[in-house]
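Please check this protein record:
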Amino acid sequence: MNKKVEYQHFGIMEYSTCWQLQENLMQEIINIKLNNRNTENPVPTPNYLLTVVHPHVYTLGKSGKENHLLVSEDFLKKINATFFKVNRGGDITYHGFGQLVMYPILDLENFFTDIHKYVRYLEEVIIRTLKEYGIEAERSKGETGVWIDTKFPEKARKICAIGVRSSRWVTMHGLAFNLNVDINYFNYIVPCGIADKKVTSLHLELGKKVDEEDVRKKVIKNFEEVFECEVIEKVSDFIK
């Protein structure tokens, strides 16, 4: 079991480019797993972790409803946003500047083979990170992601969305953590298909802009602790 995770922060990256990168890395791991079936000397499967910031984009998961995008294609052009139907779980969400997006491409057979546990671990990473900023975040029953004030439905608000895909226990897609996000962009969708709850951002909760680099470092540290792994930052790109 390989508990080392190769990590790289790519900064600003177009959604389509990053999606293809994830697909390539996932397929690489799957190919190794398939080849290992036919050899006496199996090769350890790698694990990857990407963090990025996407320009304005809306993505719709496999279980989402297209009418949860509330604006036209022409309007999307006016706000410099794009739209993609993607192969993750979940409904529609927004990615944009001021948001930390994290994509773990892990072979869960290196960790545990339980996709629900995997999602709970991703939530835990963000819950721990928010605690470092004095914010008590939590899960909302029946709703994936990280929330604040779930005990008060009229105040409940999501600060991190999660949507994943798994094939042969290899993961892709991941989470989107709102740091300094212009939440007006969420007004053009039904976020995650949930119409009666709000979206928030860390800077709104704290009343000041946050240091995104500092948050990113805390997220990676907490990922390492929650998944009990060694995150190794790569100097050069591992784009194939």
Residues 4-233 form a domain with the BirA Bifunctional Protein; domain 2 fold (CATH 3.30.930.10). The first helix runs from residue 15 to 36. The chain has one domain: 4-233. Helices lie at 15-36, 73-78, 115-131, 202-206, 212-226.
